[in-house]
Automatic annotation (TrEMBL):
The EC number(s) this enzyme carries: 6.3.5.3
Metabolic or biological pathway, per its Swiss-Prot or TrEMBL entry: Purine metabolism; IMP biosynthesis via de novo pathway; 5-amino-1-(5-phospho-D-ribosyl)imidazole from N(2)-formyl-N(1)-(5-phospho-D-ribosyl)glycinamide: step 1/2
Catalytic activity: N(2)-formyl-N(1)-(5-phospho-beta-D-ribosyl)glycinamide + L-glutamine + ATP + H2O = 2-formamido-N(1)-(5-O-phospho-beta-D-ribosyl)acetamidine + L-glutamate + ADP + phosphate + H(+)
Pfam families per the UniProt record, alphabetical: PurS
Species whose genome carries this gene: Gracilibacillus halotolerans
Gene: purS
NCBIfam families: phosphoribosylformylglycinamidine synthase subunit PurS (TIGR00302), PRK05974.1 (NF004630)
Name by which UniProt lists this protein: Phosphoribosylformylglycinamidine synthase subunit PurS
KW Lipid biosynthesis (keyword) present: no
GO molecular function: ATP binding; phosphoribosylformylglycinamidine synthase activity
Length: 83
């Protein structure tokens, strides 16, 4: 079994209202040194042993998980050690 760990973030220049809300809340809680916050997504997907896991993850990201127009994504694929 393999596990894909996917990080999705907004592209530079894309407004992040959720990040701004978090930044404002952090300031209200006494963290005035926070200059900027960007909020993203983290997704883990378990995959059966297959040779084309990387291609599948690319397709998943481009077709559903990320919006390539406004988001960037990166991922790693790791072997899961079962005991």
């Amino acid at each position: 079994m393999k596990i894909a760990k996917i990080h999705i973030t907004l592209k530079e220049g894309v407004l992040d209202p959720q990040g701004k809300a978090v930044q404002g809340s952090l300031h209200s809680l006494g963290f005035p040194s926070v200059e900027d916050v960007r909020v993203g997504k983290y997704i883990e997907i378990k995959l059966a042993e297959e040779d084309n896991a990387e291609k599948q993850v690319e397709d998943m990201c481009n077709k559903l998980l990320a919006n390539p127009v406004v988001e960037n994504y990166s991922y790693t694929i790791e072997e899961v050690v079962t005991q």
